[in-house]
Amino acid sequence: xNARSVYLVGVLLVYGGLWFSLDGLSFETSKDEEHxxxxxxxxxxxxxxxxxxLRSYNELNTPLPxxxxxxxxxxxxxxxxxxxxxxxxxxxxxxxxxxxxxxxxDWQRVRSGAGLLLFPYFLGVxxxxxxxxxxLFFVIAGLSFHRRERPIEMAISFVLAIACRQYMLSxxxxxxxxxxxxxxxxxxxxxxxxxxxxxxxxxxxxxxxxPVAVAAQTLPTASxxxxxxxxxxxxxxxxxxxxxxPEYVLFQRWQQSGHGLEKHGFAWILVALVAVLFLxxxxxxxxxxxxxxxxxxxxxxxxxxxTPWRIVVLAxxxxxxxxxxxxxxLVGVLLxxxxxxxLKSHIGWDKYALAMIATLWLCHGRDSAVPPVTTKxxx
Length: 379
Prior knowledge:
Layout: H1 3-21, H2 33-42, H3 51-56, H4 64-76, H5 80-99, H6 107-118, H7 120-126, H8 132-147, H9 151-162, H10 170-182, H11 185-205, H12 211-215, H13 229-251, E1 259-260, H14 266-280, H15 296-304, H16 307-324, E2 327-328, H17 330-341, H18 354-365
Antiparallel strand pairs: 1-2
């Protein structure tokens, strides 16, 4: 069988097996669905929703997924399973956008798709009424339009991504920085327009989220000065565990593009900085939160290692990530932007690496990355 046939059959087997094993996605609500579903039902009565509805719901992320889930419920009246099917179908589209083989002998993209499926949270959010998959879909669409140099479609996609989850602004922000300094200014301005949509949400909410949701928080995340470096460090470790290591296993090498900074020793300076940060802000547990662990990676390490050795392993994974992406290209800027924005994350969680990991497999499947910058890196 050729690459396209294998990929299509593989996707059908994975998703068909998942659908049947979960009883057509009609299982009981669990975890965040217990409040996401009631919020979605609030938007199922009228369409379009009123300004008051958009301003007063009790969730921290922007409302587009809840409006879509509510509209599906209004049209079909099928319960939570119908909303889950939205994410289920979107995840199939994401998988096809990330890694659909360009030709019958394009096995690199088949392996890239397998790499994305290895990230456990990808299929997890594909079958639950979560907001992550819709945001990821628009991010991947925006990156695809960026690669094809279609600024208007790119900007619209990223505006919609930010309307799903605020922290998706890291992607157009990174594109703006990269294109403004090293690339095409028309793409930079389009990305900046997408970034600026967060200002509209801040003005609309009077903050980063609806007032009711912000008031219910016990952590001072609304403060500009409050940051959680441990959560960014854990994010880098997750990228190392869920992307860098699988990439090496699947391809037996690191594919690199752009100008390698390690030739000038700068990469090792970054590694040393990461080591210092791990000593200063070790990701021992989520800060003042009801969930002490940070996700599957943290749980696995806790089961095998004592706390000091667990932190050593996380630090090594983060260092490997820094070495892998010490390049002057868009991928490096994207990784940096996501690390910075997760300083504001109220918890550390593997799931928050989903969009970045999908982006990395998208870039790998398309000859590893975006075109390198044209400027020279001097010693």
